[in-house]
Amino acid sequence: MLLQRVRVDPARDDLSDVRIVGDLVSEISAPGERLTPASAETVVDGRGGVVLPGFVDGHLHMAQWALARRRLPVDAATSARHLVDLLVASGLTGDVRAQGFRGALWPDAPHKDMLEAALPGVSVAVTSMDLHTVWLSPALLRELAIDHPTGVFRDHDAIAIASAVDARVGTGVLDEYVCEATEDLAARGVTEVLDFEFDDNLTAWTRRFASGRPAVRVSASTWPTWLEETLAAGHRTGDVAADTGGMLRMGPLKIMADGSLNTRTACCHDPYPDAGHAAPATHDAEAHGLLLVDHPELVRLISRAAGGGVAAAVHAIGDRANTVVLDAFETVRALMDSGALPVAGGRVEHAQQVRPEDLDRFAALGVVASVQPQHAVTDRDVADVLWSGRRSIAYGYHTLHRHGAMLQFGSDAPVSPPDPRSAVADAVFRTDDERPSWHPGEAVPMDVALRAASGGRVGVDVGSAADLVVLAESPYVLSNADLRSVPVIATIGAGRATHVS
Length: 501
Prior knowledge:
Elements (H helix, E strand, L loop, with lengths): L1 E6 L8 E6 L2 E5 L14 E11 L1 E6 L1 H7 L3 E2 L6 H11 L5 E6 L10 H7 L5 E5 L4 E4 L1 H6 L8 E3 L1 H12 L3 H17 L2 E6 L5 H11 L5 E6 L1 H9 L15 E9 L24 H4 L10 H13 L4 E5 L2 H19 L8 E5 L2 E2 L4 H7 L1 E5 L1 H6 L1 H7 L6 E2 L2 H6 L4 E3 L10 H10 L16 H8 L14 E4 L8 H6 L2 E6 L2 E5 L1
Parallel strand pairs: 1-4, 5-11, 6-7, 7-8, 11-12, 12-13, 13-14, 14-15, 15-17, 17-19
Antiparallel strand pairs: 1-2, 2-3, 4-20, 8-9, 9-10, 16-18, 20-21, 21-22
Helix pairs in contact: 1-6, 10-11, 16-17
């Protein structure tokens, strides 16, 4: 493949051609010089755009996002009652599936009876913005043979219920939705994803690659449910799956340490304030949020996985959860240093609230801070109410970077749209509307944001992986708004054009 007329150096206007052989960059012409296309060589015109390493979404839920693209958005709901009104006003018939509400500051609590009163006998499932709450109608509860007092499920229960609801779509249809969604990712400049769907992901993606060719590289996580099966099969983090052309790799073990901010279940050192919310009574006693797994069990899971060469990626949002997770990584690191375990890297997923004394531990332990910059701007109002006045730093990307932590960006789609242009803009400008930047001291420089959005890659050179994106303009000169909408001229994934505008 020959990628013509691109700016390899974002700071210069000189154009070069980039030749790709296989899945590597093999040649870059001197600025102003042209390379001659070889016979039958695919030529893509970069139209003077800037070529950068392809974007990597380091945290998303592919099946959930593929399904969410077909669900009714209810992010505008200001209360449980308002959400029900939105469902009725939509005029949807048959099964109703909705997504995106934020209920942390609602004055009322969702309940199955509210859905039954407004939509009698209708099968309804409503998933929260953060995927940590699923609200079902009595009709759907009956179909699933579940008896539940409120129909509202949170955290681990929500994940299990969502999986059961999604299974009703059917494997073939879901695979079609997912592969179609990868084409959307390529159109946004994404060349690789780390999928944290609650599923036997390596098996699911092996099936998808066998039936077609998804438009992105995939690292497929596993969960404790499938850990022993994964280890018995000898799958190690980073291993390439057979017959996928190098496009599918084994990813890390995903562990949930706490809940989320919007459900008030993120586990914190300090209690949540009484903000007049309508949290369910079952959670009122959990003033500090919920720790879903304790230190001994974390150590057991991380070390068990590490013993088989599988890295751990642990969801931790509240500051206490982050402390407990870092403590566990420290314990496992000592086992590794003693030779009792092979070295396998680790990740903290989200790291939204971190105590000052824990900041240096990310770099010291070699633990990646996998963060989602779009959460910082969409959660700002809730964080200002629920996390105000604390010693801990919320969404502290610059502080984490300054303390040596390796940042990797993701979207957590469908929690946020999987658009790396917006993620970079949110990290650099710390606002996505007309309001001033939220905690502007936590903004990161553009080069840091681009590196975190491309899996740690910097620049395009001969020998680089041919996972590239061509943007119409250099991100370094764009405003907040323009960066979010800069056209993606082309995306090259594993040496082939996966998107050309």
